[in-house]
Structures are given as C-alpha cells and as structure tokens.
Specification:
Elements: H1 14-27, E1 33-37, H2 43-58, E2 64-67, H3 73-76, E3 111-115, H4 129-132, E4 135-140, E5 151-154, H5 161-171, H6 178-191, H7 202-212, H8 218-226, H9 231-242, E6 245-247, E7 256-261, H10 263-269, H11 279-283, E8 291-299, E9 302-309, H12 315-321, E10 325-326, E11 330-336, H13 339-349
Helix pairs in contact: 2-5, 2-6, 5-6, 6-7, 6-8, 9-10
C-alpha cells in the first residue's frame, strides 16, 4: 500500500474510469465485492457507498458487502474495534441490509471499493484489504487524498464523493432509481451544506435534478437530515455554545471562533457523538471570524477536530500539518492532549 503527497492528486483520467469500470465488470463474474467508507461516516461517505452498492446489486452482483470501521481508538481503548453504528439520521437509507460488521467483511475480496477517505488511516483495520484485494478502487473528492489504493477516482473539483459515485454508475450504465437516488441525494446535500457552499456549481444542481426526477422528496429528506434532532441534543448545543470563544486577532487578524464538547457533555444529555457533527454550522456563523473550529472529545486525550473557513484561510493546510486533511474551506484532524494543547496547535498553524 503506497501513499503519496496530496499535491499529486488530480481528477480521474479516461484511463482511470476505464480501469474502474473493468474492475467492476470483473466482479459480475461471481467474485466478492467489498465496499468501505471511512470511520464515523457522514452523509457523503455513507450515501455514496450505499448508492453504489445498490447499483452493483442492480448489475446482478450477489456476493456484495458494505461496511466501515467501528469506534475510534480513544473510545474503545485500542484500534478501530467497535461495531459499525449507523448514525441515527441515516438509518432509513436504502441498502443498509448490505452493511455487515467490519470483522465479518470479506478478508480478501476480489474487488475493494473505498469511499470518501482521504487516506488509508481513515479505514482503520479495514485498510489491510487494500493489500489483500484483487483490485482496489478509491472514490473521493478531497484535495488532500494521498492516492492510496490501485485505481484512483479522485476528483478534488467535485462537490462531494457522490458526484464521483454517480459518474461511475453512469459509466456502468446503471439507471438511477429512487433508492439509489435517495442515497446519492443525501450524500450531495450534506456535503454541499444543503447546496449553500461554494462548490455548489450548475453541475451540482443538474445532478440534484436528475436524482429528484426519480421521484424522491427533497423536502422529506431535508427534514430527516437537517431539521430533526433529539431534545437532548438541543440542550447539549446550548451548553457547548455557551463556552464558545472568539479570538479576533487570530489567523493573521481574520479571526477564530471555537468551542469544544466532552464525553461528559454527551453522557450528561444522553447523546451519541453523531449529534455534534452539525454543531460547526452554529459556530461558523459568527460574523467576526473567518475560521471556526469545534473540538470533540473521543477519548481521554483524543479529540476529533472540525474546521471551517469563509475564504480567507486554507484550513486544509492547517489540518494536513496536524495530521489530517480535507478541503480549503472544510477540513479536520485528530488532536491529542488537552483542549488547550489542541487549540494551541491550531493557533500556531494559523
């Protein structure tokens, strides 16, 4: 398994697409196919994986599994060891019957498809399939992708991995139906911030139109994904936002706003970690700061860090310098130590 600097990543060539299609067509001959997305999957990772999985099932592939790594190291005491748990907002998605525990996944699949992971480390223990698989195809849109795996469908110009996923399904001549469209629409809507972010291009709206044309309900999907939270999560947000800090002189004077959430916060309100994923949107709206950051505890001295920029700062450079990755306006990394240690490292890189 070889990883190279992210700067070498480029959009897929005609040869890349042809190689990916040939690899999938080979799976139609009765081979085993394993689809994997990154740990703690978001809507784009899970939706892209399930949309392609359903498409492969439409092609007649029967030995088909989907999975993702379980809990992070800090939450379990060592390794990506916990069972995969689909976040509550996505538990209605079609194709979840294909999801198996990571330790039950094919150990040496004929075809390995990876979704929305910028580096092999995001696959936890499942990364070993990159070496044992007959062929490995990586579908991603992160500019920081390290080009791991064998066949690269990595498009940094795509608004979401689902754009790449739809491109593969189209080349495989899989017609869109409502189930595939639901998965891909969730993926597209979540990674574009409900079509509010800068990478929402005419092509993104054209793709959304194709998906909606299958008969899906964007209003119902939006209510389920963006507008439904447990009351405990509302109270949790109140606690975490109350401790938000504004540093107007940070990041070269364009400003930083940040806050943090602990495992005790989650326990006190009886919430799962996934409810914190949308918290960054409540923090990033502060008018006085270009950069926003939410630091979420996942272990005794381990934190999942989400960063956003309004345009003045390339937060992917900060994240890569601290061991993570992402996009210019949205990135993240895993921090270690205390909250002060983590925010101090961020300040220094900014």
């Amino acid at each position: 398994m070889v990883e190279v600097p992210a700067a070498e990543a480029a959009e897929p060539t005609a040869a890349d697409w042809a190689a990916a299609v040939a690899a999938v067509r080979g799976g139609q001959a009765g081979g085993t196919v394993l689809l994997v997305c990154h740990v703690n999957p978001d809507g784009d990772a899970l939706g892209s994986m399930l949309g392609v999985a359903l498409g492969l099932r439409r092609l007649g592939i029967t030995q088909l599994q989907a999975t993702f790594p379980g809990a992070t190291a800090g939450a379990t005491g060592g390794g990506y060891a916990g069972p995969p748990e689909v976040p509550e907002p996505f538990r209605w998605l079609p194709g979840l019957d294909l999801v198996v525990p990571a330790d039950s996944a094919y150990p040496a699949p004929d075809l390995f498809l990876c979704f929305d992971a910028a580096s092999a480390s995001r696959l936890g223990a499942l990364a070993d399939r990159l070496d044992t698989a007959g062929a490995a195809v990586v579908l991603d849109h992160h500019a920081s992708n390290t080009r791991f795996g064998g066949i690269h469908l990595v498009d940094p110009g795509a608004a979401a991995t689902s754009v790449v996923a739809e491109g593969l399904l189209s080349r495989l001549e899989v017609p869109l139906d409502a189930e595939i469209a639901q998965c891909l629409y969730v993926a597209l809507a979540t990674d574009t911030g409900s079509f509010r972010f800068d990478m929402t291009t005419p092509a993104v709206h054209e793709m959304a139109a194709r998906l909606i044309a299958t008969g899906i309900s964007p209003g119902e999907i939006s209510r389920r994904i963006f507008d439904t939270r447990p009351f405990g999560a509302v109270r949790l947000y109140g606690d975490v936002l109350q401790r938000a800090q504004l540093e107007p002189d940070a990041a070269g004077g364009v400003g930083l706003v940040w806050t943090y959430a602990t495992l005790d916060d989650l326990a006190r309100h009886g919430q799962k970690a996934y409810v914190l994923e949308a918290l960054i949107d409540s923090v990033r709206c502060a008018a006085e700061a270009d950069v926003s950051c939410v630091i979420k505890q996942v272990g005794p001295a381990e934190w999942a860090v989400s960063m956003r920029s309004k345009g003045a700062v390339d937060v992917s450079r900060v994240a890569v310098a601290l061991g993570g990755g992402g996009h210019r306006l949205a990135a993240g990394f895993t921090g270690r130590g205390t909250v002060d240690d983590v925010i101090g490292a961020i300040r220094a890189e900014l």
